[in-house]
Amino acid sequence: MFTNDSNLQVKNKIIILYIIDTFKIAVSNNFLTEFIMKQDLMDYFVFQQYLTELIDNKLLELADNDNKSYYLITENGRNTLSLFADNINSFTRQTIIDGVAQKKSEIKKEKQVFADYRKITDNDYRVKLEVKEGEISLINLEVSMISNKHAKNACEAWKKDATGIYSSILNKLIIEE
Questions:
Q1: Distance CA 48, CA 29 (A)
Q2: Which DSSP helix (H) or strand (E) runs through 11?
Q3: CA distance linking residue 121 with residue 167, whole number of Å
Q4: Is the pTM of this model over 0.70?
Q5: Which of 137, 147, 4, 57 lies closest to 49 in space, CA to CA?
Q6: Which of 31, 36, 54, 127 could form a disulfide with 59 if both were Cys (CB 3.0 to 4.6 A apart)?
Q7: Of all helices (H) and strands (E), which one includes residue 65?
C-alpha cells in the first residue's frame, strides 16, 4: 500500500499533469513555476523534482522552440491523468481551472503586443513593433537602431507600454489646429 508520502507524490504529479493538460498549450518552466507558486500548490524544489520525474517517466515531454524549452503532456501522461484525476479534490481542481482561465487571459493580452529585433549590419539593428487587437494590426512599426542596446531597450519599452506609446503616436499624427 502507498504511504502518505507516496500518496502526496502521486497527487502532486497528477496536479502538474492536470495543470498542463488544462492549459492545452506548451508551457515553459518559468511559466509553470510562477503558476504553481501563485496558486500555492506545492513547494518549488518538490515541484522541480516532480517535473524531472514526469519527463523521465515519459508523462511529460520537453520541447524546444525559439531557444526556449516547453513542457507538453504526452499521450501516456493523459492516460495516467484520466486514471488518477480523482486524486485531485474539487477545491484544488477549481483553483487550477480559475487560475488557468486568468492566466490564459493574460497570455492573450501579451500576445497582442509584439516586439523583436535582428542585426542587419554591425551598426544597424531592425526593430519590429506591433500592437494587435484580435486579428487586426493597430500599429506595425519598423525602425532602425544603431546598437544592440538601443534595439533591446526599444523592445523592452514597447512591451512595457505599447498602448501608451501607440496613443502618443496617434495623438501626434492627428493633432488638429
A1: 9
A2: helix 4-23
A3: 31
A4: no
A5: 57
A6: 54
A7: strand 60-65
